[in-house]
Amino acid sequence: MGWAIALHGGAGDIPLSLTLGSRWPREEALHHCLQIGVEALKAKKPPLDVVELVVRELENIPQFNAGKGSVLTNKGTVEMEASIMDGRTKNCGAVSGLKTVVNAVSLARLVMEKTPHVYLAFHGAEEFAKEQGVETADSSHFITAENVERLKQAKEAHRVQIDYTQPLQNGTKEETSNSNGEVQLGTVGCVAVDSYGNLASATSTGGLVNKRVGRIGDSPIIGAGTYANELCAVSVTGEGEAILRAAVARDVAAMMEFKGVSLEEAASYVIHDCMPKGTAGLVAVSATGEVAMPYNTTGMFRACATEDGYSEVAIWSAS
């Protein structure tokens, strides 16, 4: 048994022709955030603190679809959402519909710790954020020129666009994301376990490009996008509606709990046998320090490290 950590920056049709200009800042961000998590675990910080710390950092990086990089609704606004869960206690918190909160994952943790509730959304969540004195910013802080252009493209193609999928004028899906090898943004998440087997998970996103105002995806839903118990911690990314229908995160834990299989076997089965191809990926760790990072999409921005010295940052399969 030893500590372990895994994180993701989204899964989808990430082109193998991805330009260095798009690939390098995301890989550097994953290295950076992984190092933050590793140092925190080495400093004996609780896994709940670790996943919040890492996801906060990912939210502050505009190359990912969360926080500063959140994509836009059909009204040109941001609606951010996040969740966090402690595996030992199964305490959890979630938020949706945020327009001004800089770090949605931290507000989710405050919902968990400062209210009798699990989930706050929209005006109620914003009001709670003001009461708690969390950092906020004008909505313009979250709106980037790149995401304005992505929304324009999605509207022209009459599409709602998931992570790393570029709409085309004729309504077809382009497998390589766009013609010049650039890449879209992705949901972020982190899972961690300490040397004592304590687990935690957190996930954060801006949702879908051109989504209807008020749409809620899988990321803030406990059991779908995020889950942790005494056996494992899971954070999921991909097509939210498909992930919601399958309750992906909880399914991984249920496989371990009721069938007694390993984390690797459970995570692989749920992603490859239960989910439609091209819809999802996840990162997970077990109480014994195992790591699993399966995906059924072209690629997934991901990173992991374990106490025995193993470390990986990757996008596509090595094969």
TrEMBL record:
Keywords tagged on the record: Autocatalytic cleavage, Hydrolase, Protease
Site (Cleavage): G186, T187
An annotated GO BP: proteolysis
Residues reported in the UniProt entry to bind substrate: R215, I216, G217, D218, T237, G238, E239, G240
Catalytic-site annotation from UniProt: T187 (nucleophile)
Source domain of life: Eukaryota
Catalytic activity reported: Cleavage of a beta-linked Asp residue from the N-terminus of a polypeptide
InterPro entries xrefs: Ntn_hydrolases_N, Peptidase_T2
Pfam families: Asparaginase_2
Known EC number: 3.4.19.5
UniProt-recorded Gene Ontology molecular function terms: asparaginase activity; beta-aspartyl-peptidase activity
Oligomer and partners: Heterotetramer of two alpha and two beta chains arranged as a dimer of alpha/beta heterodimers.
Name assigned to this protein: beta-aspartyl-peptidase
Source organism of the structure: Arachis hypogaea
